[in-house]
Amino acid sequence: MPSDRADLLRFIEAARQQGASDEFLSQLLRSYGWPQREIERAFFELYERLTEQPIPAPSGGAGESARDAFVYLLAFSTLGIWTQALGQLGFIYVNQFIPDPVSPSYGDPAFDVAFSLARLIVAYPVYLLLMRQLIKELRLYREKHYSGVRKWLTYLTLLITVLIGVGTLITFLTSFLRGELTLRFLLKVIIVLALDGGVLAYYGAWLRRRPVQRQNPT
């Protein structure tokens, strides 16, 4: 056993003897910088020592992680589809209300509206169903709050969202410095930043979400 984990295990055993709960110790060690995986391993070894029994391996195992990754990837993919469709609808209406006489519009606006609405109508309900399932599982299985799949894929989504927002701001600033800023362009920038900001706010709070404390029956 590595010396760091041995020290961690001894600390947990001593703290439990003083009446500290496992949940309190887990939160304390996380706040002190210990990785969640190392804390879990220490508790695994502790309970195996106390029970003199190995922890049984679940039948799902890696299959559960693969399923979680599939659900998260599908949820974030549909998020990208319906937010992009919503943004395109906003762009179409801006072009209609503030036409640009210099740059002619390409494509069929009726087709663009229909295609955007179709993506929105299909992708948004699927996204809601998937998020409802994920939230339900977080309530039932508190350990999923600390899932690496959940954190990595959410941070990847936030990274893409931030890059889109940064690219939009760079384009906005370039047009401003060249004196080419128009109301039409400004409204499109606001649409992109509003959608980006909504995604960042929601999933930033999603990552900070912690398990609900369960009340012991009296």
TrEMBL record:
Location of the DUF5671 domain: 68-201
Any Pfam family: DUF5671
Highest taxon of source: Bacteria
Presence of keyword Hydrolase: no
Keywords of the record: Membrane, Transmembrane, Transmembrane helix
Transit peptide is among the record's keywords: no
Residue ranges of the TM segments: 69-93, 113-131, 152-173, 185-205
InterPro entries reported in the protein's UniProt record: DUF5671 (IPR043728)
Entry protein name: DUF5671 domain-containing protein
Organism: Vasconcelosia minhoensis LEGE 07310
